[in-house]
Amino acid sequence: MSGKEMPIGGNFENSGVVNLGAISGSVTITLNSLPPRDAKGNETSEIKRHLDELRVAIEAELELPNDIKVNALQQVENLAKSVQMKDEGKRKLQASMSFSALKALNDSLANVAKLAGSMTQLLPLIGGFFGLV
To answer: Is residue 78 part of a domain?
Structure first.
């Protein structure tokens, strides 16, 4: 080898797929761990169902790149974690940030009609739970 050549090694598998599976599993675990009632005493089964429907829609969308899916799923997980927060200020802030990120994604999905349709239907329900809409 000359001084300018460098051996390259390692595993170059598509890490997006691995990350997508990991975050999907993490979202599912977080959703399944939601208690029957949140810190405010609200029933959580409906928000859990809406967030799970959104998770499934994101994962199923073939036109959405894996890195965008991973980001969207992280926002879904953050919303699920927000359900369990006792501090109302922190709960609302985290939910608001994740909700805004998903809303921005939804607004940019003109070519991804199925997911956009699901998000258009589910985001108002999810936002309503947190008092964001």
So the answer is: yes
pLDDT of residue 70: 95
Specify whether the CB–CB gap between 23 and 58 falls below 8 A: no
What is the rounded distance in angstroms from the CA atom of residue 32 to the CA atom of residue 26? 10
What percentage of the chain carries pLDDT values higher than 90? 65
**Where in the sequence is the domain holding 70, given as residue range(s)?**
17-31+43-129
Q: Is 120 part of any domain?
A: yes
Q: How many domains does the chain have?
A: 1
Helix axis angle, 113-129 to 88-107, nearest 10°: 160
Question: Model-level pTM greater than 0.85?
Answer: no
Q: Give first-to-last CA distance, the chain, whole Å.
A: 63
